[in-house]
Every structure is written in structure tokens, then in C-alpha cells.
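Reference record
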Amino acid sequence: MENYDQLTKTISLEKYGIKNATINYQLPPDELHKIAIEKEQGVEASSGALAVNTGEFTGRSPKDRFIVKDDITKDRIWWGDINIPFDSEKFDKLYDKVADYLSNKEVFVRDSYACADDNYKLNIRVINEYSWSNQFAYNMFLRPSEKELESFTPEWTVVNAPGFMAIPEVDGTRQHNFAILNFTKKIALIGGTGYTGEIKKGIFSALNFILPVFKETLPMHCSANVGKDGDTAIFFGLSGTGKTTLSTDPYRSLIGDDEHGWTKENTIFNFEGGCYAKVINLSRDSEPEIFDAIKKGAILENVILDSDGHVDFENTSITQNTRVSYPIDHIENIQIPSTGKNPKNIFFLTADAFGVLPPISKLTPSQAAYHFISGYTAKVAGTEAGVKEPVPSFSACFGAPFMPLHPSKYAEMLSKKMIDAGVNVWLVNTGWTGGPYGVGTRMKLKYTRAMINAVLEGHLGLYNYDDYHIHSVFGVAQPRSCPGVPTSVLSPRATWNDDEAYYKMAFKLTNAFRENFKKFEAHCTEEIRRGGPQRYAF
């Protein structure tokens, strides 16, 4: 068998249709960093991290994400606005055009894998046009040892060509950028966008199909950590709700910050080998672990640097979605390997900009399934043109853009696992208190941390009427007291000082929940349907 050094020199991409390319195989991150700077595709920040601009796209483009409709997918995928079908013949023609585009170029190739549990490992080969995209793959996927590379056989391939522009009327895309999954050929084809998140979310989306359909494993868009006694906690939440922040805890070991599987053997495993965190308004005081992870080897995306290379984390002139990727070992307190036991507590995080949900509440199994399918958070004024007051935002399973199956499939798996494992599920509002956005204030991070710590340390008591109050509109159980949190904060109605305005806003949100849930009702049991708000506005 060829050794690692020989593989570095002799790897070929001919079988991928990429011909006469100059191949940089398995380059270390320092070298990829250096190449990006030499090619003027990035600059070094004062921290040593590489700062890049992803170009036209500074976030994912959900309407340009497709799945090839074929014998594997046609009867299994939940087709619609999220999972958009793509013709297999058009895929083949587009792939050939991308392969021709990469031929005769310098390319960067990396072998890596997803899934930290050896029983579920997925080997991946990533072919990149840019060195910094390949460094992102190094950061975000799991890194095989030199010995593992000797016998490495890729199962899935990511072909990433940001500089290739599709012709929609010829290639079948919506516009010049695209991210397409082909489950028969096991290829994620990405073009026309430099946003690196498309690389990781492509593989995440593939696993969200592979694991439940073929491996009896629940894939989850969540973060996870583990305490000193081995108790695992899981945090579901959409962007901006605090998923990465709250799971990165100096007193608990981080399993991962975004993507996990819950196996039939009742273990939790990280899909990834790194973290991809938002850095808007980042400070060492508020998030020291993430702040200190931004060093040589990390990649900053779309941030503004001053003349000395210092990042202005408050500057959103390029995008509000400023990001950093780094290998998970940039965090000191991590779980090795990135696995855990059955969770004891699950937290659903929501940034409720209406300011009406309790800061923390305990959910029954049916409520947990309902809120999991709903995946609620809110957009606030200023984030999109024309948004002048809070707008409810629902993303099924807290990750609809990455879920190929109907959300009820994932919810049923989660409900069964929660009941079998006796897990406590909590709804945590990291959003507004004392009124909606523009009137109230954002929930203090120290209070949210205190509530979560109280749960993890067993201080919130049993589910009973002495310790909990049942919310009159949402039906959830809110604790009457919590160590480290003023009692007045625990009741959202009390923070408003205007009962009529509070209930008017609360009913407005419950109606939004019901309207959103209509598209799922036919696929859900009566028990799940009754997990939602039961009171109607007059």
C-alpha cells in the first residue's frame, strides 16, 4: 500500500472528470493559509487568523439548493420549496461542465470524514478551487490520521467551484449559483458561491437523509456538551438564538456546536471536527472561549479589520452574518472523542422578539414534539427591508433548510427517544423581556446561563403546581423561582406592566403558531397537535 507521502504526490482526479489539474493534496492549514495570502484571497488578522471575503454570497442561498430526483429520493424526500427537485440528466451535464472548469487549474483536495462515532463514519473527499475553502474543510470535518489515510476510500465527494457560474436557462438552475445533492452518485456539487457554509451544510443535509433512512439514527441541528458526571445536554436553536454560546461552557466539555446524531444504541455523536460561530458583537467578556479560539488556523469571514489587523466585531457593513470557523481543539474544554451518552436535558432555544414567551419553561412530550416541528424564533426590525416590527420565523426541526424528510419523521423519532430515555425538555427564550423588540430589552445572558445551570444541577424541582405555573396562553410550565434569576424575570407578563398589551401580543404569536402548523397537521398524531397553544384569541 502506498504510504501517506506517496499519496500526496500521486493522487489523481481523472475519475472525477478533472483532467491535468495541479493537485494540492492534504495540505496542512498553515500552508493553505499562506497560499491564500500569497494569492491575495485573504489577509492575516492580528490574532493570526485568516480573514477572507466570501464575495457575492455571505450566507446560504436556500432557493438555490437542489436534490436530484431519482430512484433513491423520489418517494422519500419531502419535495417542495425547501427540497427542490433537480433533473438527473441536467445534473450530469452540469457536473461535466464544472469538472471541465476545474481541469487544468490548481485545485485543493482533502480527505476527511463526518461522524465521530466509528459505527457511523462517512468518508468524504473535498475538491476545492480555493485554498481557504479547503482550509475550511480541514477545520469543519473530522481529520483522519496518516495511518487512516493509507487505506482511505471516499464514499461522498464535495466538488466546490465558487468561480464557476451556471447559465440558468441551459443548466436548469435558478441563477448562477447552486448547491446540489445527488444521492445516487454521492456527490455534493457547489458552484457560483464562495460562502463556505454551503460545504458543511451539503454534507449535513446528506446525513439528515442517510442516518434516519438507512441507519435508524436521528440527525439533529443542535449543539451538545457533557458534564463532569457524564450527563449530556443538547441545545436546539436557529441562528442567533445562542446555540453555540450556551453550549460553550467552561464547566462542561463541548461535544460539538451544530450537528449531531442520536443513535439506536443511545449515544450522541458530533458530525463535525470544528465550530462555525457567528462573531457579530463578539467580545472576550461575553464569550471568552469563542473569542480565544480565533487564532492561527481559524478563518474569519466577511469581517472588517482596522489598519493594525484588529477585527471590528460590531461592524456589519458587509453582512450581519460574520463568521469564524476553527478546529474544535481551539476550545480548551472539549469531549474526546466527540461523543456522549443519552441526554438528560434538551433545550429548545428561541429568540422571541415579541417578548411573550417565558425565559424558561418545561415541556411535556407532546409540547416538545409540537415545538420541535414548529422551530420558532423571530426576525427583528432592521434585519430585512420592510421589517418594522417583530416577524415570527418558523424552521421545522430547528433546521428546515437541511431536512430532506418530512419534519414529522424527525419529530416522531425525537419523541420516542425522549420518552424512552426520560429526557426533560425545556423551552428557553433568549429573546426579549419587558415588551417586544423596540420596547423591551434582550434577556441578559447571565440570566439565561443561570437558568440552564439550574436545570443541569437539578435545582428547578419536580413538575408540580407548587414549583411551576402553567402559562395561561401557551400552556407551558414556567418555574416560580430559579437560583440566580430575579423572580420577576421568570414571568413575562409581569415584566410588561401592561396585561392587556401583553395578552394581545401573546395571542398574536399563538395564532402565528397555529397558522404555521397547518401544513404539518395531516402528518401528525392528535397528541402532537395538542402540544401547541390551546387558547384562541377572541
